[in-house]
Structures are given as C-alpha cells and as structure tokens.
C-alpha cells in the first residue's frame, strides 16, 4: 500500500474528527456567513505528482476553497428551490459514503430493500396508492426523463411497436401537451428522441400558470391519437397547480399518458392547508418529485413513480451475466438510466425516520408562512411590485419602475451577502424569485431580508 494511504488509514479516526470539526464550523456559521461570498475562487494549480495526505488536503481546502463557497445550506439561500440538509439526512449521507454500497443488484441486496421501504414511505407521504412503484434518481430532470421514457414506451404499445427495441423512429411524430412545462421537460424530450418540437403549449387560465382544462380538451381532440399530457403541480414562478382532478377526468374521453411534474409541489400534501392542491395526483401514470428540494436531503436526490413498472423495465433493462435477472420484482439496475449510483435512499430514510410526517409538515408549513410574510413585505415596500399571489412557497416580484434584467441583476447583487434570489421572467416581465424550502428558515430571516429589500430598492 502507498505510504500516504497506509498513514491515512491508520489515522482515519483523527482525520474524520478534524473533518467533523470543519463541517460543524461551517454549519454553525451559516447564520452570519455571506449567502453569496465576494471571495474569488482560487486559481487552478497543476496536479501534484506526490500527494500530501488527507490532513494536508483538508487544511488546504479549509484555507483556499471553503471560504469561497456560499451558504446554500443556510436559511436565506432562496434560489432554485434549494433545501438544506437536516441533521438526520446529513448523518445518513455521511454513512452512505462510508458504506459505499452498490445497491443496484440483488446479488448485494440490502440497499435495494432499504430503498424500496423508503420509496414506500415517500409514496405514503405524497398520498399515492400502492399501484405506484418508484425508484431514486438524481433529480427532477432525470425523474421527468424516466417518466417520459415510460410514456414513450406506452405510446409505442398503443401503436403496436416497442420503442425500446425498434427506436424512436418507429414511433413517428408524437404530441406532448402542457400548460407551463418546466424546462427539463423539453430537455427530456430531446434526449429521448421525441424532440423539443413535440412539446405543444396549451393555453393557461387567465392570469395563471395553470392549464385551462377546456383548452387542454380541445388540444386532445386535435391530437388525433394517443399522446402525453404533462401536468404541473407547482410551477416555477408562482407555484401554480393544474387542476389534477379535471385533467385526469379527461382520460375518460381521451387516450393519453398523464405525467405530473410535482418536483416540489407534491410536498403540499403534507399540509392540511394546502393538500387540496394535489388532490388527483394518484391518478397520474407517472410522477416526478425532487427530494433535494423540500425533503431537505443532500444533492443529488429525487424519486420517480409510475403505475407501469413493466414498461419501465422494458425501457431500462440491462442484460448482463453479472447482474440479477429481470424477474417479477426487477432489480434497480433495470429501472433507471444509471447502472452505477450511490445509495441515495439512505439520507431520505434517515430524515423520514428521524422526523416523520409531523416534522416534515412543520418544514413545509413554516416555509409557506415565511413566503407569505415576505410577499406581504414586498407588497408594502415602495419601489417593489408583487407579480403574483403567493400560493405556496415562492415569491415572484420585480421593481416597480423600469424592471430591466440589468437593474434586477444589480439589485439582487446588492443583496447577495444577505439573501440569494434568482432571476426569472413572468408574463413577459423580468423579475426575481425567492423560493423557501430550507428547514432552518424562520420568520427572523424574513424580517432580515425584508429590511434589506427596503434599504436597497
């Protein structure tokens, strides 16, 4: 064994303790750490011919790199619907690396069993029935991609071909209908060979991002055959929800696959005040939920659900002598694009076991309360304009006068040490977006943000 490796193995407990101390210092300092630091990242250096060992690497990281990282685990990082990491999820993620499981095959199957139990807990959390089966993937983009890949195979089934065997060309032109699709949907269609042009926009309700059910039915009538509908449970800018019951009811008269992008909107199910928004989610043929958002587990983690695991396995099956057979209960290697992936389920298992439904409901309701409070503060601040009602956990607002992208970028930059906001465009108006999903965020953070908004507008 290389002497550096042998030394680090012998000193591993002390090195891990030093790592713990650094991590704890970072987390303890989140309250006052600049959300987006002004420190420039270090200049790149050549790969060292000889390593310095773990302790030296840790010291260099702490000195040169760590100060340049932002406070994305903290309570005022409000961009991208980025949750933090609960204490239990952090412990689970550390153990994920320590255990380093290849859990895709039943030949080494404990990880698969833990993942299936965790998926079952998540299914219950979101109000889905047992007909929905799921697996972990890297994020909402991959969850949408898996759901739409299964939809593509379903379209082939309707047309008497297997796209998994014959290729996308055998399917011919397809239509994917949606009111306000996330950008990852078009990306998924591109990767799946159906093409971005397959995405057909459907009119939304006046002043809303939610699809107009009547317009959707008209589009289905024009589709001339089986198609795919992507419904939204929580849009990016205003967290608007399609009427999932109304959309699902259209299946009685039209032949389509219903995929619901519920990347963070699915968490409305945890709150009695907001659960009505996701009534009808169980009627979906496939569902996307992102976990490194409101479940507050580390990047990267998401889950996908579908009623047609048989089609899913047809798409993603991986035939190799060293892998388990497809069987009635397919190994995870047969269900997602990745042959190699870490045991993402462990961090989710830890946070669900540690805090249960009640703990995660508290996170959801506290975040929505904070969003409503910030919305009220924006509405009361001269020079700012709220662009949409605060429906759940996102505040979409702009400058009252001359809201150009350049002025908004400068405004956001002036706040960056206190709060991170992301740019967007809503109804043609350049805007900023504050997304609450971090378990640490409280009303005190909102008051700090509101005060800075008033100072810099």
Automatic annotation (TrEMBL):
Question: Does the keyword Lyase belong to this entry?
Answer: yes
**Top-rank lineage group of the source organism:** Bacteria
Q: Which GO terms describe its biological process?
A: amino acid metabolic process; carboxylic acid metabolic process
Q: Which UniProt keywords apply?
A: Decarboxylase, Lyase, Pyridoxal phosphate
Cofactor(s) named in the record? pyridoxal 5'-phosphate
InterPro entries (alphabetical):
Aromatic_deC, PyrdxlP-dep_de-COase, PyrdxlP-dep_Trfase, PyrdxlP-dep_Trfase_major, PyrdxlP-dep_Trfase_small
Q: One MF term from GO for this chain?
A: aromatic-L-amino-acid decarboxylase activity
Tell me where in this chain the PTM N6-(pyridoxal phosphate)lysine is found.
293
Respond yes or no to whether keyword Lyase is given for this record.
Answer: yes
The family assignment reads:
Belongs to the group II decarboxylase family.
| Protein name in UniProt | Pyridoxal-dependent decarboxylase
**Protein species of origin:** Streptomyces bingchenggensis (strain BCW-1)
Lineage, broadest ranks: Bacteria, Bacillati, Actinomycetota, Actinomycetes, Kitasatosporales
């Amino acid at each position: 064994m290389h002497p550096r490796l042998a030394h680090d193995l012998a000193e591993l407990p002390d090195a891990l303790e030093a790592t713990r101390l650094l991590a704890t210092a970072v987390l303890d300092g989140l309250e006052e750490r600049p959300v987006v630091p002004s420190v420039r990242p270090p200049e790149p250096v050549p790969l060292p011919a000889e390593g310095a060992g773990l302790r030296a690497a840790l010291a260099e990281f702490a000195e040169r790199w760590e100060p340049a990282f932002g406070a994305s685990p903290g309570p005022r990082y409000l961009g991208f619907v980025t949750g933090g990491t609960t204490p239990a999820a952090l412990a689970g993620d550390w153990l994920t690396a320590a255990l380093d499981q290849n859990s895709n095959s039943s030949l080494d199957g404990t990880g698969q069993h833990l993942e299936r139990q965790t998926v079952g807990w998540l299914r219950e959390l979101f109000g889905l029935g047992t007909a929905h089966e799921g697996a972990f993937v890297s994020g909402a983009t991959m969850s949408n991609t898996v759901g739409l890949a299964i939809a593509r195979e379903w379209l082939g089934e309707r047309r008497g071909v297997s796209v998994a065997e014959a290729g996308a060309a055998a399917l011919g032109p397809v239509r994917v209908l949606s009111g306000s699709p996330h950008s990852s949907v078009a990306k998924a269609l591109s990767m799946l060979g159906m093409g971005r042009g397959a995405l057909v926009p459907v009119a939304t309700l006046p002043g809303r991002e939610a699809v107009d059910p009547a317009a959707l039915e008209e589009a289905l009538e024009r589709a001339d055959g089986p198609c795919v509908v992507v419904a939204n449970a929580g849009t990016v800018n205003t967290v608007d929800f399609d009427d999932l019951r109304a959309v699902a009811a259209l299946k009685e008269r039209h032949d389509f696959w219903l995929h619901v992008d519920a990347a963070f909107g699915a968490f409305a199910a945890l709150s009695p005040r907001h659960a009505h928004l996701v009534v009808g989610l169980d009627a979906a043929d496939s569902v996307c939920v992102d976990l490194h958002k409101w479940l507050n587990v580390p990047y990267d983690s998401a889950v996908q659900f579908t009623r047609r695991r048989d089609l899913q396995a047809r798409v993603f099956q991986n035939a190799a002598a060293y892998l388990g057979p497809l069987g009635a209960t397919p190994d995870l290697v047969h269900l997602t694009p990745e042959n190699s992936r870490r045991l993402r389920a462990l961090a989710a298992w830890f946070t669900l076991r540690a805090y249960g439904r009640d703990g995660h409901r508290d996170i959801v309701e506290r975040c929505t309360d904070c969003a409503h409070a910030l919305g009220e503060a924006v509405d009361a601040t001269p020079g700012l304009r709220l662009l949409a009602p605060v429906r759940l956990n996102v505040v979409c607002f702009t400058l009252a006068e001359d809201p150009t992208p350049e002025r908004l970028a400068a405004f956001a930059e002036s706040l960056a040490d206190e709060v991170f906001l992301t740019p967007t465009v809503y109804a043609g108006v350049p805007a900023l977006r504050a997304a609450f999903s971090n378990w640490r965020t409280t009303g005190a953070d909102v008051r700090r943000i509101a005060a800075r908004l008033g100072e810099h507008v």
